[in-house]
C-alpha cells in the first residue's frame, strides 16, 4: 500500500491535509504517540482551522479509521485481482496479496488491530468501526469461495482470522525475510480450507 499523500494529485484542502497527515502519523507512530500539535504542524494548518474541522482528537481518530477502511479495502480488492483472484475460485490469491503488503517499507500491521489495542477500552467507537472493517474484509474473502459451498461463511471467517494472525506475526519478522513464517503458516491453513471446500462439494 502506498502513502495516502500522492504528490501527483492536486493540493488537498485543509481538512484533507489534516486527515491525510493524521493517517500517516497515526499508522506509523501510533495514535497515542501522535499529538494534535504534531498533526497541525505537519498539515500546515492553524489550530483554529484544525478544530473547525475536528473538534476533538477522538473525532479525528474516527475519521482516520473511516478513511483507512476505504483506502485499505480499495487496495485489498485491487491487489487480489492483480494476483489472479476470481470469484468462487478459491483463496490462493490471498498469499501473494499479503506478501505484497508485508513487504512495503511502511508496513506497520493492521491499523484497526493496532488502534483497538491502544484505545478499545476508552473509545468504544474504535471497536465498532474496526469490527465493520473486519466484517467487510471477511465478506471479500467469502466471495473467493464458491457460492454453493455449504459452510462458506464459516470458512471465510476462519480464513479472515488466519489472515489477522499472519498480519500480527508479520510485524515480528524481518522486513526482507525470504521465508516468512507468517505466510508459510497461512499458506498451510488456506490450503486446508480450500480442501474442505472441495470435499464439501464432492
Q: Main attributes?
A:
single chain; 202 residues; mainly alpha; Arc Repressor Mutant, subunit A; 9 helices
Task: Write a structural description.
With 202 residues, this protein is mainly alpha-helical. The model has no long low-confidence stretch (mean pLDDT 90). It starts with 13 loop residues before the first helix and ends with a helix. It is 66% helix and 0% strand. It folds into 2 domains: 49 residues, Homeodomain-like (Arc Repressor Mutant, subunit A), CATH 1.10.10.60; 138 residues, Orthogonal Bundle (Tetracycline Repressor, domain 2). It is built from 9 helices and no strands.
Question: Which helices and strands appear, and what pairs or packs with what?
Answer:
Blueprint: H1 14-29, H2 36-43, H3 47-53, H4 57-82, H5 94-102, H6 111-119, H7 124-142, H8 152-170, H9 181-201
Helix pairs in contact: 1-2, 1-4, 4-5, 4-7, 6-7, 7-8, 8-9
Instruction: State the CATH architecture of the largest domain.
Output: Orthogonal Bundle
User: What is the makeup of the main sheet?
Assistant: none
Percentage of residues in helical conformation: 55-70%
Q: How large is the count of helical segments?
A: 9
Please tell me how large the radius of gyration is. Answer: 19 Å
Which fold name fills CATH's third level, the topology of the largest domain?
A: Tetracycline Repressor, domain 2
- Overall geometric form: elongated
Looking at how many chains there are and whether they match, the oligomeric state comes to single chain
User: Whole-Å distance between the termini?
Assistant: 38 Å
Counted up, domains total 2
- Uncertain segments: none
What is the residue-mean pLDDT, rounded to a whole number?
90
CATH uppermost class of the largest domain: Mainly Alpha
The secondary-structure element order is: HHHHHHHHH
Strand content: under 5%
- The number of E-state strands comes to 0
Structural class: mainly alpha
